[in-house]
Predict the 3D structure of the following.
Amino acid sequence: QVQLAESGGGSVEAGGSLTLSCRASGHIWSSYCMGWFRQAPGKERELVSSIWSSQPPTYADSVKGRFTISRDNTKNALYLQMNRLKTEDTGVYYCAVICPTVIWGQGTQVTVSS
């Protein structure tokens, strides 16, 4: 069973940047679709961005123009570059394989202070 491990979270001031990384313990086929989700305190988990093999990546409206998702299939890795962070970006960020199966990482905390 493939396992996912996120890293790169932390505390940053509003306007700053962070890059999240997600490494898979096993092989992730390039055809797998993957995504980054986040869960803010007291809120539902939401899809932030997804990346597919045959269509452009998707972004939540709240992060368009600020976040960039990418993957390196040679390293079984997924990334999320987050720029111009806002306090409302605070939450636990989860990496996930979303198709053809579902696999979740453990999450990494991102805290953006004003």
Remarks:
- The radius of gyration is 13 Å.
- The first strand starts at residue 4 and ends at 7.
